[in-house]
Amino acid sequence: MGLSFLSRHFDEQLRLLPTMAKWLLLALAVGLLSGTASAVFLFALDVATGTRIAHRWLIALLPLAGFAVGWLYLRFGSSVEAGNNLLIDEIHDPKKVIPLRMAPLVLGGTVISHLFGASVGREGTAVQMGGALADQLTHVFKLKHEDRRIVLMAGISAGFASVFGTPLAGAIFGLEVLAIGRLRYDALLACLAAAIAGDQVCLLWSHALGIHHTHYAIGAVPALAAWPLIAVALAGALFGLAGKLFADCTHALSAWMKRRVTYGPLRPLLGGIVVAAAVLALDADRYIGLGIPTIQAAFAQPLAPWDFAGKMAFTIASLGSGFKGGEVTPLFYIGATLGNALAPLLHLPFALLAGVGFVAVFAGAANTPIASTLMAIELFGAEAGVYAAVGCVLAYLFSGHTGIYRAQRVGQPKHRWMASVPADTRLADLPARREPPRPP
């Protein structure tokens, strides 16, 4: 009678137990793979950055490094060159398992880019490694399309969480990045478990390898009041426009280069010539690599008001010409330095607006305001949460229907005048310009 009672009244919960066990085991496997890959990547990145700083002449070899990476992708990586966009497309429309070669190719390509002085990030690399490694479980466990979608999302979450040390943001990023205005709650458990596991595995390896995540000190946060909230909202709109400008210019340069230079390896070679010449001629080392020292300085002291524009230009030139790496850390740099420049004008502390800009430009460029707000809370503390949320939401709205991920879908348009956009339209397929209807 006891079993009968449980079956009648708790049937849903009993059925949930084997499903939970399945996804927890799969998520732990994904976290183990992604966290280990991220730790190796962070270690290699640390070595590459230190080597470049110690031997500045390596920057002069950036064009040759670009050609080498371009040739490797042409010869071995044409099926995975779409990177993060390939992962997003496979989640929405599963076709075939991501080739395992994506992981070593993007790892090697990104480390080479940093070693010789390109301005690229690290998120794209960690996410691609996490997704590619997670998708190999499809072969092992003979996963169906729907389960494969969730495993890929868990890989994205684990990669993001482990490379930045932000498990909550990573979990939501894997759900939020797929479509504007829509979350996949059926993958919430897997993404959360994979993000936590990936972060913890990466931490264990990081201690063994002697590396660590970067910490940022935001200091005292002003009490909530009318002017600070209004000022952060105004800044948030500018952060969103900066994210839109970055995404649009990167895509435009990439498309222009592909039209003008048909042989793939020549594109990063030419981009490398421009970037290396500018760095060496202008003594602009602060605008290449990750730029972590400048980001940290933005929280503590006034910086040159054009630093955000310098980083944006060098990153657009690097990514738009075909160098491998992520966009997110350069977006952190752009946001922190833009916030630093705006702080005196808006009568706000440098650290507060640098912190809000850090996450808000990313929120606008990636269309991920919830994940970005959680990242602010994990990195800066809960006290900054409300200001970060205001900045991220305004940046999300003002960045429009564009973004760094062209395969992202429009699940729910941001504005009413975009309601005519068909469901699940890719950002890449949207018209270049949409005007709001004129009032009658």
Automatic annotation (TrEMBL):
Primary location group: membrane
InterPro entries, per the entry: Cl-channel_core, ClC, ClC-type_chloride_channel
Gene3D superfamilies per the UniProt record, alphabetical: Clc chloride channel
Pfam families from the UniProt entry: Voltage_CLC (PF00654)
This protein's record includes keyword Lipid metabolism: no
Keyword annotations of the record: Membrane, Transmembrane, Transmembrane helix
Subcellular location: Membrane
Membrane topology annotation: Multi-pass membrane protein
Transmembrane region(s): 20-45, 57-74, 150-175, 187-206, 226-247, 268-288, 308-333, 345-366, 386-407
Protein name: Voltage-gated chloride channel family protein
